[in-house]
Design goal:
eight-stranded mixed β-sheet, two-stranded antiparallel sheet
């Protein structure tokens, strides 16, 4: 089986979706032995496909051991000291290096989360290979076509402590793009990528929640403070993910 990142046929890692430092927070949030966490993917037709995945048993089924134990492990380790205080709802200042570190981690997690549920995979393999070509060779950078933001959530923490939402347009109704949002306890990371151009996209709906998030990629010259402004409540987070008003798919996933 070929690794989704490097493309080499190697033994797969079968490692957990979240590293140990994140899982201990997720386990503390849950009163269940193996909680099921909600995931949502929406297509350009406005229909939702929803499913639940077990938070602790979900593994990386198509990532090789070399990638998982190498550059991916390095990203997780570098980000730990930033994300843990954010999960504790502490104030954190993100300079240019910290913004880049958090943005790379968020982009990598979005790609990994998209592989959890095979029937709903929509992102092109080129995104995975592109990230690998940079990070595996020591280049700390992301595509110019991406825009990444961080926000805080002050609403209900779901069992397992994280959620994942993805909206993707293959180009049938316009330029192909994706918008992915995940919440890890109270930390919200959102990634946009325009798959048909060199620059990231920022939708008009962001104006509604202006000042409620901070852009971290491309990195900002001035330091970014987390949490930025007032945290999102549950209703505002739904607006933030872009899922408001979409219709649940009748299909069986």
């Amino acid at each position: 089986m070929a690794c989704i990142f490097c493309g080499v046929n190697r033994k797969m890692s079968r490692e957990h979706l979240w590293p140990e430092w994140a899982r201990k927070f997720l386990e503390a949030d849950s009163g269940k032995a193996v909680p099921l966490v909600p995931h949502v993917i929406a297509g350009s037709d406005g229909h939702l496909r929803q499913w639940e995945a077990p938070v602790f048993s979900a593994t990386l089924k198509d990532v090789c051991r070399v990638c998982n134990n190498g550059w991916m492990s390095d990203v997780e380790e570098l980000t730990k000291d930033l994300v843990v205080p954010m999960m504790r709802e502490e104030e954190v200042t993100l300079g240019k290096e910290e913004q880049l570190c958090l943005a790379i981690w968020g982009y990598m997690k979005v790609l990994i989360l998209e592989r959890v549920h095979a029937p709903t995979r929509v992102l092109p393999v080129a995104l995975y290979r592109g990230l690998h070509s940079h990070l595996a060779n020591g280049v700390a950078s992301l595509p110019r076509s991406a825009s990444i933001f961080v926000a805080a959530h002050a609403g209900r923490v779901v069992d397992g402590g994280y959620t994942h939402h993805l909206i993707a347009d293959r180009g049938d109704l316009g330029n192909p793009f994706f918008m992915a949002t995940f919440t890890l306890r109270q930390v919200v990371v959102q990634v946009f990528e325009n798959l048909d151009g060199p620059f990231g996209i920022v939708p008009e709906r962001m104006v509604i929640l202006e000042g409620r998030d901070s852009q971290i990629w491309p990195v900002q010259e001035s330091p970014v403070t987390f949490p930025p402004g007032r945290p999102l409540n549950d209703e505002e987070r739904t607006m933030y993910t872009g899922l408001e008003g979409l219709v649940e798919d009748d299909g069986d996933d």
